[in-house]
Specification:
By secondary structure, this protein is an alpha/beta fold. The protein is built from 10 helices and 8 strands. Helix 5 links the parallel strand 4 and strand 5. Helix 4 runs parallel beside helix 5 and helix 9 packs across helix 10.
């Protein structure tokens, strides 16, 4: 019997020319906060499983299923790239396989090659979005290194490539901007961290980056804006985003 694969909400969002905002969530999110995020028009919910209070399979599945029906990315970020995962690769792989049927996509580090090779075929068979990412909290790599990372990620099966780097100067910001413009057809999510990188949160979508990240209540990344600030800025600078939100918020008000 064949399996029917449908286009996920996340895939539609990331392939659209309209900017989108993602916010990360740990577990035990109060229901009121989750409902507010829905009603405020949040585009993508990143489920940061590495920050859950327990990595027990049943606990993780229960928490993930609270977001059923919403555009979701499951992420179990390693400590080397800013996460809090303390378990083994095998444990991480088991959790990713368990949550895949309940999310729209996964985000895995380019450096986690053994996990990538085992989980990507499963994700593809289920029609899930695969984001392969790299995070550099010290500096912005040269253009040729950025392009090499993007090439490797695509060869491994990435639908979208997320590259996040510390911008220590406006020159770094320009490097990331030029990389985004030149390679936008690859399906990029590009973020500049740090004070010099804050502008990327608002303006890189205009250059071809498919998703920007904001924070709601906890653990912002350096240079990140709040969800409310990001939402307001995108509505100001992107007519398509503003029109989409007017329609979405009107629908939600009538539900």
């Amino acid at each position: 019997m064949s399996t029917t694969i449908t286009v996920s909400k996340l895939s539609e969002i990331l392939r659209s020319s309209v900017p989108a905002i993602a916010v990360s969530f740990a577990d035990q999110v109060p229901e009121d906060d989750l409902e507010r995020a829905r009603r405020e028009g949040l585009d993508v919910f990143e489920l940061r499983i590495d920050r859950y209070t327990s990595s027990d399979r049943e606990h993780v599945l229960t928490e993930v299923q609270r977001f059923e029906g919403l555009p979701t990315i499951a992420t179990i970020r390693t400590a080397d790239e800013g996460g809090q995962w303390a378990g083994s690769d095998e444990e991480r792989l088991d959790l990713l396989r368990a949550v895949l049927p309940h999310v729209d996509g996964i985000d895995i580090e380019l450096a986690s090659i053994e996990v990538l090779l085992k989980v990507i075929p499963v994700a593809k068979s289920l029609g899930k979005v695969v984001i392969i990412s790299n995070h550099n909290f010290e500096a912005t790599p040269p253009m040729e290194d950025l392009e090499e990372m993007a090439r490797r990620a695509k060869e491994l099966g990435a639908d979208f490539v997320k590259l996040s780097a510390m911008a220590n100067s406006f020159e770094d910001l320009r490097t990331l901007a030029a990389f985004t413009i030149t390679n936008a057809e690859l399906g990029l999510i590009v973020i500049a961290m740090g004070q010099h990188g804050t502008a990327s949160r608002v303006f890189f979508p205009a250059l071809g980056s498919r998703l920007t990240y904001a924070y709601s209540q906890a653990w912002p990344v350096s240079g990140q804006l709040t969800y409310e600030e990001t939402f307001r800025e995108l509505r100001l600078y992107y007519p398509g985003f503003n029109e989409k939100k007017i329609i979405e918020l009107e629908i939600l008000e009538n539900v």
